[in-house]
C-alpha cells in the first residue's frame, strides 16, 4: 500500500528550508536536473502527497482538528490561560493572525501546491523521459488532484489566496497578489475535472491510497456544495452558485460505482486492522515506524494525563488546554446511540488513582497500536467516507437537486439503524445536519457543514450562550467564517496582501 514512507530525497531536503516557508507562498529551489526518468517523476509525485504528513510541516489532519473541529460547536476549549492556538481559535479572538497554526496551514498548503506545480512544469518540459504516455497522464492527474485539494482548503480557510499555477521564485512570488475566490475555484474545478477524466476508479497493490477518479468526484461534489452556499462573507468560500445538481450527479457516480458500502459496525470503520474498508473513498496514508511516516492527529485530541497512564510516551493536551468535547454535542445523542462509545472517552483514572472527567474524542486512538512516539500513529485519516457521500447526496436533494423525501429519509435511517436508533421521517436540512454532526463527530466536518449551509453564525452564537460558562468566547460574526491572512505573510512585503475584515 502507498504510504508516506515513500519519500523523494529531493523534497525531503527541501522541507528543511524553514526560512523560505516563512516567506509568501513561494516555491522552493527547482528540480536541479532531478527529472530524468519515470522513477524520478513518481518520487516527485509522492512528494506532493508527503505534504499531507508530518514530513510536510506538521501533519495535515492536525490542521483540520484545530481550524475546523476546534472552531465548531463540537469542542469547548476556552483555556483559562488561553495560551494554546486552539483556545484562541475556539474563543473567536480577532488577534489570531500571529498564531503558528494559522501560518502553518497556509505554508503547508502552498508547499503542496509548489510541489504539484514543479511536477506539472517538468511534465510539460521533460515528460517524454517517462516513455509511457499513460503513466505521464496519471502523474499529471495526481498532481492536479492534489493541487486542487490544497487550494480548496486554502479557500475555505482564508478566502482569497494567491493563484499560482507554475513554479515561481521567491522574488516572483512577491509580485503575486491574492486572487478572487471565483478565480481560484476555476482552477480547482479544472484540475478536478482533469483528474476525473484521467485517473483510474481504483488502485491496487502498492498504489492503493493514491488519488482516484472517484475521490476526485467526491472532492468536486464538496466544491459545488460549498460554492452553492449562501454568501455570508463577501470574500468567503460560498458563492450562492446553486450548483446542487452538479454535486448530486458526481455523488451519484460514486454511489453507482458499487465500490463502496456502509460498514455494519461503526467502530470497524476506524479499526487499525481494517484500513481501506468499504467506507473509505479516499484517505491520507500513514504508517508507524517510518521516519516521519506516522500521523500526529490522534494526539491532538487526548489528554496529557490519560497518556501518562495509557501510553509508552508523553504527549496530549495539557491542563486547561484540553480539547474538551462540548456538552452540547454529547446532549445531542439519543439514549442507546452506539456511536457514543466508539467516539468519546468520557473519563479515565489518572496516575494518582483519581477518576478524571475527560470528554475527549478517542475515535482514532488504539493503545495497542501506539507507535514509537506521539507523532507515530499508523491509522489512515479518512477524507471521504461513503456515509458522507450518501448524506451529502441527501443534502443536495433537500437543497433542490433531484431526489425525493423518501430517498433522504432512507439514507438518514440507514445511518440511524447502524447506530441502533429508531427510524424517523420527514427529514429536514436541520435534522440532516444534526445527524451528520453525530455521525462525523471528531472527523472535522462540522465547521464546513455550518458554513456551507449558512447556519454558522446563528448556531455558534446559540452554542456560546449555553456552553460558555467561562465567558471566554466572543460573539461570532460573518468575519469569522474565514481566518486572517497570517501576519508573517503581510510582513514579507507591505501592501502585497490586505488583511481579511475583522482581524
UniProtKB/TrEMBL annotation:
Residues 378-503 form the RagB/SusD domain. Gene3D superfamilies: 1.25.40.390. CDD domains: SusD. It comes from the Bacteria. It is found in: Cell outer membrane. One of its GO terms (cellular component) is cell outer membrane. Residues 67-225 form the SusD-like N-terminal domain. Pfam families: SusD-like_3 (PF14322), SusD_RagB (PF07980). InterPro entries: SusD-like_N (IPR033985), SusD_RagB_dom (IPR012944), TPR-like_helical_dom_sf (IPR011990). Keywords: Cell outer membrane, Membrane, Signal. Belongs to the SusD family. This is RagB/SusD family nutrient uptake outer membrane protein. It comes from Neolewinella aquimaris.
Amino acid at each position: 500500500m502507498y504510504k508516506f514512507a515513500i519519500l523523494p530525497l529531493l523534497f525531503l531536503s527541501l522541507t528543511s528550508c524553514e526560512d523560505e516557508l516563512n516567506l509568501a507562498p513561494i516555491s522552493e529551489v527547482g528540480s536541479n536536473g532531478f527529472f530524468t526518468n519515470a522513477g524520478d517523476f513518481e518520487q516527485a509525485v509522492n512528494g506532493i502527497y508527503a505534504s499531507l504528513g508530518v514530513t510536510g510541516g506538521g501533519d495535515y489532519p492536525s490542521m483540520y482538528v484545530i481550524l475546523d473541529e476546534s472552531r465548531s460547536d463540537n469542542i469547548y476549549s476556552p483555556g483559562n490561560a488561553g495560551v494554546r492556538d486552539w483556545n484562541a481559535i475556539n474563543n473567536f479572538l480577532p488577534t489570531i493572525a500571529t498564531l503558528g497554526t494559522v501560518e502553518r496551514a497556509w505554508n503547508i498548503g502552498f508547499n503542496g501546491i509548489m510541489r504539484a506545480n514543479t511536477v506539472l512544469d517538468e511534465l510539460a518540459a521533460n515528460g517524454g523521459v517517462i516513455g509511457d504516455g499513460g503513466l505521464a497522464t496519471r502523474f499529471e492527474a495526481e498532481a492536479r488532484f492534489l493541487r486542487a485539494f490544497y487550494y480548496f482548503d486554502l479557500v475555505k480557510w482564508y478566502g482569497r489566496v494567491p493563484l499560482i499555477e507554475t513554479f515561481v521564485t521567491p522574488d516572483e512570488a512577491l509580485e503575486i497578489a491574492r486572487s478572487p475566490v471565483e478565480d481560484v475555484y476555476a482552477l480547482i474545478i479544472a484540475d478536478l475535472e482533469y483528474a476525473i477524466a484521467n485517473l483510474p476508479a481504483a488502485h491496487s497493490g502498492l498504489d492503493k491510497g493514491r488519488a482516484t477518479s472517484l475521490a476526485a468526484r467526491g472532492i468536486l461534489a464538496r466544491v459545488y456544495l460549498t460554492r452553492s452556499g449562501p454568501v455570508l462573507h463577501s470574500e468567503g468560500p460560498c458563492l450562492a452558485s446553486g450548483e446542487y445538481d452538479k454535486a448530486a450527479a458526481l455523488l451519484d457516480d460514486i454511489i453507482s460505482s458499487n465500490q463502496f458500502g456502509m460498514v455494519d459496525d461503526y467502530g470497524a470503520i476506524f479499526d487499525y486492522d481494517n484500513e481501506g474498508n468499504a467506507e473509505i473513498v479516499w484517505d491520507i496514508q500513514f504508517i508507524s515506524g517510518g521516519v516521519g511516516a506516522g500521523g500526529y492527529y490522534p494526539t491532538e485530541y487526548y489528554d496529557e494525563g490519560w497518556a501518562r497512564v495509557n501510553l509508552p510516551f508523553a504527549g496530549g493536551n495539557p491542563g486547561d488546554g484540553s480539547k474538551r468535547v462540548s456538552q452540547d454535542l454529547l446532549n445531542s445523542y439519543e439514549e442507546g446511540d452506539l456511536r457514543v462509545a466508539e467516539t468519546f472517552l468520557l473519563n479515565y483514572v489518572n496516575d494518582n488513582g483519581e477518576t478524571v472527567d475527560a470528554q475527549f474524542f478517542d475515535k482514532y486512538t488504539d493503545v495497542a497500536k501506539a507507535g514509537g512516539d506521539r507523532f507515530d500513529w499508523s491509522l489512515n485519516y479518512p477524507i471521504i467516507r461513503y456515509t458522507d457521500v450518501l448524506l451529502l447526496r441527501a443534502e443536495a436533494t433537500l437543497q433542490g437537486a433531484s431526489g425525493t423525501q423518501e430517498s433522504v429519509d432512507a439514507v438518514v435511517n440507514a445511518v440511524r439503524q447502524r447506530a441502533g436508533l429508531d427510524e424517523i421521517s420527514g427529514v429536514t436540512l436541520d435534522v440532516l445536519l444534526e445527524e451528520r454532526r453525530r455521525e462525523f463527530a471528531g472527523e472535522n466536518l462540522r465547521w464546513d457543514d455550518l458554513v456551507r449551509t449558512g447556519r454558522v453564525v446563528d448556531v455558534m452564537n446559540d452554542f456560546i450562550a449555553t456552553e460558555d460558562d467561562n465567558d471566554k468566547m466572543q460573539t461570532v460574526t460573518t468575519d469569522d467564517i474565514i481566518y486572517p491572512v497570517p501576519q508573517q505573510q503581510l510582513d514579507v512585503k507591505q501592501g502585497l496582501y490586505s488583511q481579511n475584515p475583522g482581524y
